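A quick aside before the break. I want you to see a complete sequence-to-structure record at least once, exactly as it would be stored in a machine-readable document. Don't worry about memorizing anything.
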Amino acid sequence: MANNTTGFCHEALKESQCQSIVTLQTFTAALSFTGCFVTLLLAAVLKRWRYYAERLILSMTIAALLDALPYFLVRRHDVETNRCTAQAFLMTYFDWSVLLWICCMTINVYANFARKRSLEHFERWFHAICWGVPLIFACIPFGWSDGYGPAGVWCWITVKHPGLQFGVWYAPMLILILAVVVIYAKVHKKVLRQGRAYHGFDSSAIAAGDEAQKEIGALRLYPLVYLFLSIFSVINRIQNAARPHSPIFALFIMQVCITPLQGFINVFVYRYASLGSKDIWKELRRCCSSQGKVQHLPYSLHTTATDSSSESFGDSDGDELYVADSD
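That is the input. The structure line, written in tokens, reads:
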């Protein structure tokens, strides 16, 4: 017989187990929020917002920061209030926003590396999609009187509707992330093939191709991290759907310890993807010095090039894309 009478965690869990889950959930959400804040602060100081591809990454970071906030919104005595519904709605909305920004980043990489096209003129459309489409999915559960409510660990789509959970979130999320991974693999293969074609002909093109491969590998970390962090959440929800009255405490612990860490881990991914091997403190000092200009952005984080001191990689078709400064 379950000892949990709060209604916040799964009814089959004990009160002490519920408290452990809530405490860990709050801690990991705080780590995620802090990681996102540090990333945005670092980008602001280094003025990374001036570059189109970086703005996509920073938009995803803003969504991840906002995605951490709902975890602090509700405590156990609020489960039957509007705050519970608000938490569930905001979690669905910002989860979708983070996912769609990762997809837009992937589309941008594919267009630049595989098609030699700049999508900077679509930036407003990316914002419309990544902030607008999530609203549609977040409103779907309102079609059920008990669509949003206590969902085992926090307020979300209730455990009474596992099909709704998978239809609104888990199934499309897995499909999109797997598609992103496949696209990155195809782009990496194409760039690798292009790089081999330049060997023995143009040393600058070879260097640019090698840099492109490194940059794709770095940017590919975002969806891979996202996929890894989602695994235990998916496994736990499948188990809940298969055996709704026999939850596994360890799966809940893994879910709350790992799933909310998106922002915390992304700060390390951002440091690697945006600064590469550069000394971050040296870059900060250079930015804050009288010179005030930070150089050596990674290969794909430059905007369309018109500077004659730059070199482009691949067939530009009239557009100089993904340039690397020649020192």
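Two observations worth writing down. The first strand starts at residue 148 and ends at 150. DSSP finds ten helices and four strands in the chain. We'll return to this after the break.
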